[in-house]
C-alpha cells in the first residue's frame, strides 16, 4: 500500500550542518591538522564528523573545517560543550594568537 503525500511529509526531518572553520597561521597549520585528526578520530556517540581543508582560502595560512551533520540542534549543542570547547581551549592555549575560529549552523533546504 502506497503512502499518500500527506503521510510521507510527516516522516521528513530537518537536517542541520554545523561548521567550524579554523584558520591557522602557516607555521602551525600542520600541528593543528595533526591535533584535529587525533581528537576527531574517535567519538563514543557515533557522531558523524568530517575534517576538511579549505582549498584556495581567501585567508593567509591554512583553513580547516570540522563539520557535523545531524537531525537536531540538541546534538550540535552537545558537541559544542562535550567536544568543541576542549578542542578550542587546547588550540588557543597551544597556539595563542595563531588560530581563529568561526562557527555556524545551517539548515538543509533541498531534502
From TrEMBL:
Pfam families tied to this protein: DUF4286
InterPro entries documented for this protein: DUF4286
The protein, known as: DUF4286 family protein
Biological source species: Parapedobacter defluvii
